[in-house]
Model the fold of this input.
Amino acid sequence: MSAQVEHAEPGFIHKYLWSTDHKMIAMQYLFTGMAMALLGGFFIYVVRMQQGFPNQYVPGYGLVTAGKYNALVTMHGTIMIFWVAMPVLIAAFGNFLIPLMIGCDDMAFPRINRLSYQIFLLSALVLLSSFLVKGGPFGGAWTAYPPLSSSGAYNLTPIGATLWLLAVALEFVAFLLGGINFTVTVMNSRAPGMKMYDIPILIWMIILANVIFMASAGPLIAGAVMLLFDQTMSTGFFDPTRGGDPLLWQHLFWFFGHPEVYVVLLPAMGIVAEIIAVFARKKIFGYKTVLYTTWAVGFLSFVVWAHHQFVAGIDPRMANIFSITTLMISIPVTEMVFLYIATLYGGSITLDTPMLWALGFIAEFLIGGVTGIFLGSSGTDIYLHDTYFLVAHFHYTFVPIAIISVFAGITFWYPKMFGRMLNETLGKIHFWGTVIPFNVIFIPLFITGLAGDQRRIYSYAQFAEQSRPALQHLRTTSTIALLVMLAFQLIFLFNFFWSLRNGKTAGANPWRSGTLEWTVPSPPPHGNFAELPTVYRGPYEYGLPGAAQDFAPQNLPDSALAGVMKS
Amino acid sequence: MSAAAKPVANTRSATGIPTARLITWWVIASEIVIFGGLLASYVMHRLGHPEWADAASHTNTWAGAFNTLVLLTSSLCAVMAHKAADAHEGPKAAKLLRLTALGGLLFLTIKGFEWTKDIHEGFVISSGGFWPFYYLMAGLHGLHVLAGMVIMLVVASDAAKNRELQRVECIGLYWHFVDIVWIFLFPLLYIAR
Done:
């Protein structure tokens, strides 16, 4: 059966904005996410300049006022999580790779897929429109606790707060639509012969992430409607004087918010799994155990949320339980990392750029995980809560997830997406120029946080007793390291766009990988496979002894494989 | 909207469950979590505020009970539509689906009279306590009834021409779900004292 159909060249709108092709939708998500990342990066540049060089003119922005500072911090957090990590990790990679890796021509429901991106784009536009309204964008932090978020009299951004809420709700709708479509596609549309345990780990992880998202986002959607009504119709869901309860929001938010960490972690872990198998030329050590630990993580992620509320006045006995579950969830995550390290053991490792990023992910995420132990234990958390220690811990988990693993994925699949190779030298310069400054940004913040620096303080001019002038050089160091890291991203952007035209032609399978997406031309044509494949084995058959070709692609029957081996 | 444009991915069934039915179940699962969060929030508040029973006693239990009957009857029509679709009797399925949608309309009309009365008596969404939950939960459910009716009429217009008959079952599943949500809302909002 030929899936390729001849088409007349469609017009611009039809090709780039109205396409139902999963690869085009992936590109829409990827480029929207990258554009939003530039914006989120610019905001944190302004915020860090205020911390490093307080109350001075910020080049490219001007003077930072207290209100603007709050809005910039809020927008940085919101954008990086909801409009960068989610669309790039789940939607872009998921859209591009799911049909290719499971061997079919498109998503099961291409028009739902298109609708998902359109709603996502609308949500981004709604968020950006809040910069144009009176009062400016919402400044009540990405967690939007009431009463600060529910009352315009407190947050001073009544329109911005409502637009923020609408944007987040729309974004959730987009990802529910997309995620359900992904899940159904992987459940039903796999190539003949691809059994449950022949599915590449990345696809498993994206699906489990979507299921976790779906199961956790619902209560927050309900909560978002309540907050919207509190803002616009003074309903009082979160107002204790009228029978409401502000803590309800914290429960609804974190019942979503903590699983959300694993929603973005799992795809990142999946990307790393694909890459280390290829560049260590080894089968993933304990494929099924990786999945078991993932299920354990997914389950436990629903019973840890109140560790965000240790200082919110919850019952200490309850805090005990949530401390224990929080420490428990580090066990399966650690096991997963051990399995990856075991995969590396004895492999014939080549350090191409994607592999550097993958190894960088493991190393940096470990630091994030270990520092989480201090925050998950209610005793130490009461001291460390809302300090820069928490900020540094959070970024040691989220930068590996949303930045490092994304660069791993982009450098690895770029040849498949665009048919050309990225420049290796520039790639390596970009890797070291990102990872080293990243550590220099956040290690000082661990120290200032331990010393007691509170996050969300705009200027110590108003909080002289908190200013600790002896620590200012650490704050400044962190800011300068951020400037260096941001500057190195220009190398990536140059490499990305220069290689589109000038990179070496990639060929179908430049990394000698065994999964199905590498059996089609780069970039894959409309309909993906000239002939839809049948699957004969698992995804990670590498390092076959005594063979010219040391790997067995999923789509070759054993008989055909013998021919390849002899040659 | 041509059926010929369906990708191969849409026609495969590795699980043995038809793709349309599978996605409907996932949509229902995600809806359960949304209503679940709302119901749990309400129940926790209700347990902490015994005085909300006074407000709840203003609701008209008989109107609620009659609406329950209306919804259950409309669900019966949805089941019969499914049976007709299985027998490839598209026009009959379409007729039954339109009857189901009519049940939804009757439900919303009665709801409209109830709300008008409540609002005239001064119980509005900003009255605090029980009332915001009452309006939010019943309102969200009402929106689902409305959405179900619209989709049902679209499916019916296709089914009348014997097209996309698998959708009759899917909209029926969704309608039963909306029905079950009401089965939870009715005792929680009307009966519980």
Observations:
- Chain A has two domains: 24-499, 505-567.
